[in-house]
Please model this.
Amino acid sequence: MQKTRPLSVSVDTKLEKNRMVIHPNEGFDLGLMKLEYDIDVYATSDVNSFVANELESEKGSIYLENECGNGMIKISMPMWNKLGKPKQAILLADSHRICIVAK
Model:
């Protein structure tokens, strides 16, 4: 399983509910090389529930954009609220599954 360092969370009110945007450097850390991926999104504050596959996922997407600052993740307002309005998050990747973990 691959993961990012802690990323600063930026809320983008124009993003669709389960869409995330990260810098390509963070994408590289997750083994992502294309500009866009359709993924299963998991959102939690408990890494163990993701590893144990105890969470329900939602369909979503992740985009790699140079315009997104290095060390930052852009998420939608609904996802930010679901995560408890974190200032930081990490991403965990396991194949087509991406988990955003509130820090």
